[in-house]
Amino acid sequence: MAQKVALITGITGQDGSYLAALLLSKSYLVHGLVRRSSSLSTARVDPLYNDPNLHLHYGDVCDGQALSRLVAQVRPDELYNLAAMSHVAVSFEVPEYAADSAGLGCLRCLEAVRAAGLGASCRFYQASSSEMFGPSPELPLTELSPFRPRSPYACAKLYAHWTVATYRDSYGMHATSGILFNHESPRRGRTFVTRKVTAGVARIAAGLETCLRLGNLDAARDWGHARDYADGMWRMLQRDEPGDYVLATGEMHTVRELVERAFAFVGVEIGWVGERGSRGEVGVDAKIPGVVLVKIDPAYFRPSEVGTLLGDASKAREELGWEPTTTFEALVEEMMRSDMELVAKGDLLT
């Protein structure tokens, strides 16, 4: 049997690194698209660097010609489009770039596949997002739930999502969208709230900081582990028929719960003082009430907030045999343990 070839855009991100490791373990030849920057950005895939089946290429989903050349050169059996400006809050600051990378980037990938004459053979995965649902009166959310995007990022992802469906229906392409709910890991960037909390608590425990500043403590999300979700991506492209799939744990937790569990890992019980949800509310050490460890900072509120997101992955369970394997509690513990180790090694000094 011929060796399968995969191309991953966004391979140096959290999801891309887990997916690359999974595909290499299955004996794929893996090509990855790396966006050039003046600082090294390959840390997440450095452990895979010596694998002879891994090949990295400079490029960008915002550069259609370069992308087309790479697809024509690599001729992938599977293309996973994970590249995007993926920070919801930052998308309000750079909306045009968010639309270009997260929206048009998907279109360029699909067109690159068609231009290379691979429309009938290359299986395509698009990283859609639960943010497309926006605020919904009906929970949990499924593949059939209505979309109400509330950020430039979510609007761009919805454009890409419907583009995939259009190319699937119009050209008969094996094009699939994974509607992934929040998925985290020790590899998550430190500007995302989960990692901001675990890294911040680790630094506070080490005496490097005194206080954690956050936005909406009562925002609730369906949080799983990125490693599980990478497995779901691969499973989607092994199906004979393309389609859309929600990946989610079916459990919802608040940022407040995340904070409490992260501090509990270092032996600190958080008590909340002030009106719940107000800008004056603070989190204190329950054993030393005068020590403020958490403050609300208005700078971290989004112009438009999605309060709750909860997914129903029944279709993925039934058709893909996919199940999340990591609980919320285990996820926070793994992230805390990793960040405590990084602090001890001096890697989280700033």
TrEMBL record:
A Pfam cross-reference name: GDP_Man_Dehyd
Domain NAD(P)-binding span(s) in chain numbering: 7-335
EC number(s) stated in the UniProt entry for this protein: 4.2.1.47
The keyword Lyase appears for this protein: yes
Keywords: Lyase
Cofactors that this protein relies on: NADP(+)
InterPro entries with a match to the protein in the record: GDP_Man_deHydtase (IPR006368), NAD(P)-bd_dom (IPR016040), NAD(P)-bd_dom_sf (IPR036291)
Keyword Lyase: yes
TM spans (from-to): none
Residues annotated as signal peptide: none
Source domain of life: Eukaryota
Family: Belongs to the NAD(P)-dependent epimerase/dehydratase family. GDP-mannose 4,6-dehydratase subfamily.
HAMAP family: GDP_Man_dehydratase
Protein name per its UniProtKB record: GDP-mannose 4,6-dehydratase
Organism per entry: Tetraparma gracilis
